[in-house]
Write a structure and sequence with these properties.
Blueprint lengths: L1 H57 L1
Length: 59
């Protein structure tokens, strides 16, 4: 009977570990998505500033 109890505890620990890894992957993907979105927004702002500078020099 002791072996069955330790197997259940080991199985629970393994499931918890895989669940934690799964949640970590999801959080990582979301973080990468927001990072890409933030960089694109920053790049758009820089492009607008460069365009304004070019227009000022043309005048």
């Amino acid at each position: 009977m002791e072996n069955a109890g330790s197997f259940v505890i080991g199985d629970m620990i393994a499931q918890l570990l895989f669940f934690a890894i799964f949640i970590g992957v999801i959080i990582g993907v979301v973080a990468i998505f927001f990072s890409i979105k933030r960089r694109k927004s920053q790049l758009d702002r820089v492009e607008e500033k460069v365009d304004r500078i070019i227009e000022r020099k043309k005048e």
